[in-house]
Amino acid sequence: MSKTREKTHRLGEVTVPTGWTWANLKAELRAIWENNIKEWKIELAYPIAFIRQCLSPLIFLLPYLIYGLVLIGGRFSQHLQELVGTGDIVTFIFTGYLIMGFIGTAVWAMGFSIRKEQWYGTLESIYVTPTSRLSLVFGMALHSTGHQAIGTLLELVVIYTVFGLALNVTGILPALLIFALMMFALYGFGILISSLGLILKEGWIVAEGLHSILTILSPVAYPLLVLPTLARQASNIFPTAPALVGMRTFLIEGYQPEMIGNVFLHLLALSAAWILFGIFIFRLADVYVRKRGSLEKY
Questions:
Q1: Does residue 278 contact residue 190 with C-beta atoms inside 8 Å?
Q2: How many CB atoms lie within 10 A of CB 293?
Q3: How many other C-beta atoms can be found within 10 angstroms of the C-beta atom of residue 240?
Q4: How far is Cα 290 from Cα 107, in angstroms, rounded to an integer?
Q5: pLDDT digits (tens, 9 = 90+) for 118-165
Q6: Domain locations in the chain?
Q7: Residue 151, CA atoms < 13 Å, CB-side half-sphere
Q8: CB-count burial class (<10 Å; 0-12, 13-18, 19+) for 89
Q9: Of the ranges 6-10, 220-224, 280-284, which one carries the lowest mean pLDDT score?
């Protein structure tokens, strides 16, 4: 190549900044935000489906409430009162089911963020950009969290209007802090699921299994005390059980925690562990599929 052609070629090159810099951080945050906006545009293009998804949390909650009310013959359960210090089945189940949709955010929405790009036919195009692959996952997490929050707010309004809720208003702020720590840990869990989707492609089987395990080990409609000892111990490694116990401690008057310890430190440790573990597995999966050349395989 002549010096003139070499010079022209170099003038056409695009320099991509590398390393941990403020410019790179802003670029990745922009990528996360644009992924979030893209998903909103796609969803709002189908308004009937969007409305259905917003109503889903309420529809899925009602069977839990109806079963509870029918089985105990009313709103208050003496047995539940003896176990956890409160017998209000409606408030107990509502505060538990509050997080179920956000579990889905981590397992399904984040887990299938990369798979959806493959459905759209844009995965290879994204992979050749200098943007981190994780920005795609976190963009979906941002969108799904906002989407789920809309459904949860609607759920709260309807349940409060129909049944009423005996919530301790002064405990809302610490409960929100616990919820935030739980979400960080669930995001790490979602990164892990998305990495499995890279390898397995149709990773819904794994996602469904892990979602079921999380649901069983989370005291949504029943206290942890009714689970076998081994299951109660296993629930400590997932963020949903300690988060639910902590939130109920602040939100429900007279509630007696089924787990002993500092819930904030517990969730902080789980958040760091799950995020680091999820990113580590994601990096390994990313390198693995690119080395095998299986990224484009459907």
A1: yes
A2: 8
A3: 25
A4: 24
A5: 777 777 777 777 777 778 788 888 888 888 888 888 888 888 888 777
A6: 31-292
A7: 27
A8: buried
A9: 6-10
Sequence-distant (6+) residues with CB within 8 A of 171 are 249, 250, 251
Q: What is d(CA 264, CA 262) in angstroms, rounded to the nearest whole number? A: 6
Give the percent of the chain with pLDDT over 90.
1
Q: What is the DSSP letter of 106?
A: I
Which bin fits 88, alpha (ψ -120 to 50), beta or left (φ > 0)? beta
Structure confidence at residue 102 (pLDDT) = 77
Euclidean distance between CA atoms 55 and 59, whole angstroms: 6
Backbone φ and ψ of 48, nearest 5°: -65, -45
- The set of long-range contacts for 231-236, using a CB threshold of 8 Å and a minimum separation of 24, is 232/258, 236/266
CA atoms within 13 A on the CB side of 20: 0
Q: Is the pLDDT of residue 171 over 80?
A: yes
pLDDT band at 295 (very low <50, low <70, confident <90, very high): low
In this structure, the number of other CB atoms found within 10 A of the CB of residue 68 comes to 19
pTM over 0.85: no
Q: Are 66 and 223 in contact (CB under 8 A)?
A: no
**Could you tell me which residues are beta bridge partners of residue 88?**
76
Residues 42 and 46: their CA atoms lie apart, in Å, by 7
* Residue 165 and residue 90 in contact, taking contact as beta carbons nearer than 8 Å: yes
pLDDT (0 to 100) of residue 6: 47
DSSP 3-state of 88: strand
Q: Which two tokens stand for residue 158?
A: 């309807």
